């Protein structure tokens, strides 16, 4: 069995993706004081923070279900992509540069994983065909 560089890169990105998003989602649900304080400073109350954590956890579970049904992996990444973009823009707007690296990584990893997915066609040529 020959393993290509693309396959190794894909699974490394996939692992990194889950490594970043899962602890963040769980921290919101279990109401970790540091996470709750950070979210409150961004204008999110307890209810919104927990709701975001639940939505992120659902996305993570969909991504994990993709281990058994690959199309779910793609769906989960598409569900979580807006959260990554939202986290990045929120941290940048509030000048929390020490937090924005992980959300920036999530944006890049989302794009890389979607680009490498054979079930999705992304045409970068601008040709429209």
Short account of what is shown:
About 75% of the residues lie in helices and about 0% in strands. With about 130 residues, the chain is mostly helical.
What does this structure look like?
By secondary structure, this protein is mostly helical. Helix content is 76%, strand content 0%. It has five helices and no strands. The protein has helices at residues 5-29, 33-41, 46-65, 70-93, 97-116. Helix 1 (5-29) runs antiparallel to helix 3 and helix 1 (5-29) crosses helix 5 (97-116). The longest helix has 25 residues, at 5-29. The radius of gyration is 16 Å and the shape is globular. The mean pLDDT is 90.
Give structural attributes.
mainly alpha; 76% helix; 129 residues
Radius of gyration: 16 Å
* Uncertain stretches of 5 or more adjacent residues: none
H/I helix tally: 5
Beta-strand residue fraction:
under 5%
Biggest sheet: strands, sense, closure?
A: none
What is the typical, i.e. mean, pLDDT? 90
Tell me roughly what share of residues is in helical segments.
over 70%
Count of individual beta strands: 0
Helix- and strand-based class?
A: mainly alpha
Shape: globular
Distance between the termini: 35 Å
Note the run of SSEs as H and E.
HHHHH
Secondary structure topology:
Elements: H1 5-29, H2 33-41, H3 46-65, H4 70-93, H5 97-116
């Amino acid at each position: 069995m020959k393993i290509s560089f693309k396959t190794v890169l894909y699974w490394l990105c996939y692992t990194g993706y889950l490594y970043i998003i899962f602890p963040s989602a769980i921290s919101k649900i279990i109401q970790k004081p540091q996470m709750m304080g950070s979210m409150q400073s961004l204008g999110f109350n307890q209810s919104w923070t927990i709701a975001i954590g639940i939505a992120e956890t659902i996305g993570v579970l969909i991504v994990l279900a993709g281990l058994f049904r690959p199309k779910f992996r793609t769906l989960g990444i598409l569900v979580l992509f807006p959260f990554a973009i939202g986290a990045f823009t929120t941290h940048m707007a509030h000048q929390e540069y020490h937090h924005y690296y992980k959300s920036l990584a999530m944006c890049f990893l989302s794009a890389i994983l979607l680009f490498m997915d054979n079930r999705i066609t992304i045409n970068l040529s601008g040709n429209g065909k």
